[in-house]
Specification:
The complex is a heterodimer of chains A (465) and B (499). In chain A, helix 3 packs antiparallel against helix 6, helix 8 packs across helix 11 and helix 13 runs antiparallel to helix 14. Chain A contains 18 helices and seven strands. Chain A is mainly alpha-helical. Chain A has a seven-stranded mixed sheet with strand order 1-2-3-4-5-6-7. Chain B is an alpha/beta fold. In chain B, strands 1, 4, 5, 6, 7, 8, 11, 12 and 15 form a nine-stranded mixed sheet that branches. In chain B, strands 2-3 form a two-stranded antiparallel sheet. Chain B has twelve helices and 17 strands. In chain B, a hairpin with a 4-residue loop joins strand 2 and strand 3. Chain B has two domains: 39 residues; 364 residues, Alkaline Phosphatase, subunit A (3-Layer(aba) Sandwich), CATH 3.40.720.10. Classes of the chains: A mainly alpha (465), B alpha/beta (499). The interface between A and B is large, with 54 and 60 residues.
């Protein structure tokens, strides 16, 4: 029986549109029919009212069936229900008065219907979309504002500061004051502990046995997966946090520092903290538009063996790689100058550098990435690169560049990756270099793998424990 | 008319009639007229909405470097495939609860409705046969079988809940690399070369190296070009001795002569292509050109003899010997020279426990010892050369192994081993814009099934393409009347592991 009622209830969102449309149309026809031009409409007004009334009655029945699910806010439901019934009653009155041709009564009925239908519809909207759905912007906008900032994750109260905002963002839509799908509310400790129609949802200390968590990790295509398909999903980070919250006992008042923290959690907790200390990111490819580079120059360079092409189909910035060209001539150097503004990445491993090549490169205003590992570049030639104000990646592995040579680039604080392996510059200079390029991650390389006796031993039997 | 002329005219007539035979006529009629009719019916209507998709094949230079859809983090890929499927339960997926169940009968609930390649009846559970520790700041679980890799745990993103639906090596490898368990689809390296071409005009875009004594079970189709023009297939190099044979010109033929003869052959081929428009002709022409250039470029790139001693120590390489380590070092050299996709297959990871060499507590450890150092060295070496950020390293097998001990034909095997397992296994990615020191996906207490963060071969493929700058849904090629793509109708970019 219950499932039948449920089934009928599910038709309410479909049926509800019929009385609204048909009755409004009936009212329109009725009013128009008073004009001479449309007087013939009079004949179909009774029929339209009749169909409208029938659909209103069906809508009421299905609406009552739906309300038994108990997922809705009671006060709003009360208004919606009784106003809806009033619509049905008024429309039946409308049928009666059109039949009896009581024009004056019919006028009042039509005005009343117009008002009542509007109100019922509005309350219906409130039930499905939540309080104030008409005036507020979209849901996400609203939520960005309410996200609290955490300055020290260890001092934060796990539930209120970390878990609740997730639940609020991803679950309140269907499980809070406005709606209680599955008879479940999540907007308060007592509701969460009470659970939904299938019983309690949190087994403290065991996430895998807790319905709240199990639903999140179900296959996204599973009917029972939460949040439902199409709604914003729980992210991996959030999932780990919720799991940890339940596994550590599901406390509502304990601080993060009071709970055992597995190592995997530390980066996640750190990522929750206020991001103001995050380093500013220098774009690898500038975001502003640029005119396409001269196609003739590109064709010429390609013919000369330079792999020069757009960084992506959608961008006019270029990457130029010199894999088969180990020495450039004046033609190439000059051609490079004609497309210099567009080049963002330059790769010339093992290049035989000349001062005119270095000069050409110094015109590449947009250049962010320069790989000249194992090239013959000298300190003097490197000095030309002072002009590359966007440079963020510089690979000097295996070159003859000296510390003084490198420090010539001190005007380029944007550098954030610096590769200095197999050069005369070593670890002991790192402090000085770091001071000159404060944002840079400096890689001296010189990595080795350890020698382990086991590496070359071939086992013939299991190892002893 | 002279006799010779008559003969020539007769030959020409035969050649022409051969082309306009009845079947040739019908074929032309149907495809030609049909296409014309269809084309006019669909005029101006982009009926698949695939505006951005591109057929990348150009008939001038099919290997020309091209730009991807969007800016990709990775410029090249090194894919390390451990053929035979390594046991996640002895390497990365630590299950202390499985140890407690060691030797007990497998519960019926895990066997009902399931099919295994070799397990029959009720097998016993088999606890982890390795000692696990958490490594690095990320706390990744890596067993003592991989002591070197453990030191670079913070560079890696693990995928702990990879799933497949194929429990035999061949089909599972094909699924992993071509997006279909059946033969006939292009491999991921071919797709990438088709999309990006080759950055170094003297080298192929897609190179394959094998080790372990055997080719992978799926055969060469795992690096095949499928329906893509064959110029995009993986170029397999020999694993011992000279990587490429016949690089020297034969006696009496100098470089100019060779060039002249290739030019002449290609001119003839060009004429045939103009007539028939068969892309395979272009492929053949490009291959002649490539072979000619490789005569010069290969001796330099494909030679690890001249690498400094500390590099050999780091990788554990021994020049001249067939080994995975040598292949890994070659892979680094190739990527450095602009090769887009280097595919390594190492055979011998099929740890069933039927003999010593495939026991999880003996043979598997030996396999680990042969790859642990080179892989670790690869990550470190790429990093110190400033290449790790632009090189995506992928490691994995074709499926996982069961938490149960294999009982082939219902008998107890002489060694400890595990059967093929499709429901959960571990792979990893590093570099190329992948998060450092992260892990995605989880398995249950005994590592039998995935419980969260499930991913498939399609998802891995979508992610690899994404890192290279491709929307996997838009990298398509028209074959048999419809656009095909690597991920077919599936695939989700695993954003959780992308930095």
């Amino acid at each position: 029986m219950d499932s039948l009622i449920n089934f009928i209830g599910h038709f309410h969102p479909l049926l509800v549109h019929l009385p609204i449309g048909i009755l409004l149309f009936a009212i329109l026809l009725h009013w128009l029919s008073k004009k001479e031009k449309y007087v013939s409409f009079e004949n179909i007004v009774p029929f339209t009212y009749l169909i409208g009334a029938l659909s209103a009655i069906l809508t009421c029945i299905s609406g009552l069936a739906l309300s038994t699910s108990g997922e809705y806010d009671e006060t709003t439901l009360f208004y919606h229900q009784w106003l809806g019934i009033l619509v049905a009653v008024l429309s039946i009155a409308g049928v009666y008065f059109t039949k009896k041709k009581k024009e004056r009564f019919l006028q009042w009925v039509s005005i009343a219907l117009l008002i009542v239908i509007t109100l019922t519809g509005h309350f219906g909207g409130t039930l499905t979309h939540g309080e104030g759905y008409l005036t507020k912007g979209n849901l996400t906008n609203k939520l960005v504002k309410t996200k609290p900032t955490i300055t020290n994750a260890q001092e934060a109260v796990l539930y209120t500061d970390i878990i609740q905002p997730i639940v609020e963002e991803k679950c309140y839509g269907c499980h809070s004051q406005i709606k209680q799908k599955g008879k479940l509310r999540l907007d308060g400790k007592e509701w969460i502990l009470k659970g939904g129609e299938d019983g309690i949802i949190i087994h403290n200390g065991n996430a895998l046995k807790s319905e709240l968590y199990k639903r999140i990790i179900l296959d996204p295509l599973d009917e029972k997966h939460m949040p439902p398909k199409g709604k914003p999903q729980i992210s991996e980070k959030e999932r780990v946090l919720i799991e940890w919250w339940i596994n550590t006992g599901g406390y509502f008042d304990k601080k993060v520092k009071e709970l055992a923290q597995p190592t995997t959690l530390i980066p996640i907790l750190a990522s929750l903290q206020n991001n103001s200390s995050k380093p500013t990111i220098i774009e690898e490819v500038p975001t502003n538009d640029i005119k396409a580079a001269n196609q003739n120059s590109l064709n010429e360079l390609t013919k000369l063996g330079v792999t020069i092409l757009k960084v992506a189909n959608t961008s006019n910035y270029l990457t130029a790689k010199f894999f088969t060209v180990v020495k450039t001539n004046d033609t190439i150097n000059n051609l490079l100058k004609t497309v210099s503004e567009n080049i963002v990445w330059l790769k010339m491993p093992g290049m035989n550098f000349t001062s005119s090549l270095a000069n050409s490169i110094s015109f590449c205003d947009s250049l962010t990435k320069l790989s000249i590992e194992y090239s013959t570049i000298t300190d003097n030639q490197l000095n030309e690169f002072k002009k590359l104000i966007r440079l963020r990646y510089l690979n000097l592995v295996g070159t003859k560049i000296t510390l003084n040579g490198l420090l010539q680039l001190k005007g380029l604080p944007t550098i954030n990756e610096l590769y200095l392996g197999q050069t005369s510059i070593t670890n002991k200079d790192s402090l000085m270099i770091q001071k000159t390029f404060p944002k840079a991650k400096i890689i001296f390389g010189n990595y080795r793998t350890e020698f382990l006796p086991s590496d070359t031993v071939i086992l013939k039997a299991p190892l002893k424990k | 008319m002279s006799k010779e002329n008559k003969k020539i005219i007769k030959e020409a007539t035969i050649a022409t009639t051969e082309q306009i035979t009845r079947s040739y006529f019908f074929k032309e009629c149907f495809s030609g007229m049909g296409a014309m009719a269809l084309g006019s019916m669909l005029q101006g209507c982009d009926w698949l909405g695939n505006k951005d998709s591109f057929n990348n094949f150009t008939d001038t230079n099919p290997l020309m470097a091209r730009a991807p859809h969007f800016i990709g983090k990775a410029k090249s890929v090194i894919y390390l495939h451990m053929a035979g499927a390594p046991s996640q339960l002895e390497l990365f997926d630590f299950k202390p609860d499985l140890l407690k169940l060691d030797g007990q009968d497998c519960p019926q609930s895990l066997l009902e409705g399931k099919k295994f390649a070799f397990i029959r009846g009720v097998p016993k559970m088999l606890g982890p046969q390795a000692v696990f520790k958490q490594r690095g700041q990320s706390g990744a679980w890596i067993s003592d079988n991989l002591p070197h890799l453990a030191t670079v745990a913070d560079e890696i993103s693990f995928l702990k809940a990879v799933q497949t639906d194929q429990f035999n090596h061949g089909p599972a490898q094909l699924l992993m690399h071509t997006g279909s368990p059946r033969l006939g689809r292009p491999s991921i390296g071919s797709w990438v070369t088709y999309g990006l071409g080759s950055e170094n005009s003297n080298l192929p875009g897609f190179v394959v190296l094998t080790s372990g004594g055997n080719n992978p079970d799926a055969g060469k189709s795992v690096w095949g070009n499928g329906f893509l023009p064959s110029v995009y297939q993986g170029v397999q190099c020999r694993n011992e001795g000279d990587p490429v044979l016949f690089l020297k010109d034969p006696a009496g033929i100098d470089r100019d002569m060779r060039k002249a003869s290739i030019d002449a052959i290609n001119e003839a081929n060009q004429l045939t292509y103009n007539e028939f428009k068969d892309p395979e002709i272009i492929a053949r022409m490009a291959q002649y050109e490539m072979a000619f250039k490789m005569q010069i470029s290969v001796p330099d790139v494909m030679n690890i003899n001249d690498e400094p001693a500390y590099i050999h120590e780091m990788y554990g390489t021994e020049p001249g010997k067939a080994s995975f380590a040598n292949n890994v070092l070659l892979a680094r050299k190739l990527v450095e020279k602009g090769v887009r996709f280097v595919q390594l297959f190492d055979w011998g990871w099929d740890s069933h426990g039927t003999d010593l060499s495939n026991a999880v507590d003996i043979g598997l450890i030996n396999k680990c010892r042969s790859v642990d150092k080179p892989i670790t060295a690869l990550l470190l070496d790429l990093k110190q050369r400033g290449l790790l950020d632009e090189t995506l390293v992928v490691w994995g097998g074709e499926f996982g192994r069961t938490p149960m001990q294999e009982n082939r034909d219902g008998k107890t095997l002489p060694f400890k081993g595990r059967d093929h397992h499709t429901e959960a296994f571990t792979t990893w990615m590093a570099g190329g814009g992948i998060k450092q020191g992260s892990s995605f996906g989880e398995t249950d207490e005994i590592g039998y099934s995935a419980i969260s963060g499930k991913v498939t071969a399609y998802d891995m493929q979508a992610t690899i393409l994404n890192q290279l700058g491709f929307d996997h849904e838009k990298l398509t090629y028209n074959s048999q009347g419809r656009p095909f793509r690597l991920t077919d109708v599936q695939g989700r970019v695993i954003n959780e592991i992308i930095a």
